[in-house]
Amino acid sequence: MPFTWSGRATQTLSAAAMGALLLTSAMKHFRDPAFFHQVVPDVLCRDDTGERPNGAFAVMTRDEWVAFSGLLEAGAAVGLLIPATRPAAAWGVTAMFTAFLAGHADALRRAYGPAGTAAQRKVHTARLPLQLPLIAWAWSLRKPGQAARRQQ
Q1: Which residues are CB-neighbours of 66 under 8 A, at least 6 positions away?
Q2: Mean pLDDT of 94-115
Q3: I want to staple 93 with a disulfide (CB 3.0 to 4.6 A). Which of 56, 117, 138, 148 is the partner?
Q4: Looking at 19-23, 120-124, 138-142, 148-152, which range is the least confident one?
């Protein structure tokens, strides 16, 4: 007798995998925040040293943005693991990954600028397009009932 996956089981496994990815990333935000510094646009970062003026969007420091996004990712991971909150969490993760596009695009722009290094160019050239499948994956988790209905 062949083993078949139901649409619900596939959706649950997919949500668990996305949750694991988000939890792993959230932990890295706190263990190695410098890894994420480059993807936080300067326009969002408050500078308390007085070296540059703070714009209207500079409400947190770079470290605070990294910690905040790590907390968002951890919360989203938990939300994806709970079936009742999965649709809302999937919408939130889709929005979060879409918002992260701006940071990745800014990091790529700076990597190819005069202060950019070859390593930064490699990393950010790879990181930006990786957001697109992540957005699509998160989007696919927003309506868990549809995958089950299509298979029937």
Answers
A1: 29, 33, 36, 37, 40
A2: 94
A3: 138
A4: 148-152
Backbone angles phi, psi at 59, to 5 degrees: -95, -20
Phi then psi for residue 50, to 5 deg, are 85, 5
What confidence tier does 9 reach under pLDDT thresholds 50, 70, 90? confident
pLDDT at 147: 45
69 within 8 A of 36, measured Cβ to Cβ: yes
Question: Using CA atoms, how far apart are residues 114 and 74, in angstroms rounded to an integer?
Answer: 35
Residue 53 exposed, middle or buried by CB count within 10 Å (0-12, 13-18, 19+): exposed
Handedness of CA 34, 36, 41, 46 (dihedral sign): negative
- pTM score of the predicted model: 0.83
Nearest to 108 by CA among 138, 92, 135, 131: 131
Measured distance CA(72)–CA(79) in Å, rounded: 10
DSSP 82: S
* Contact partners, residue 125, CB within 8 Å, separation at least 6: 108, 111
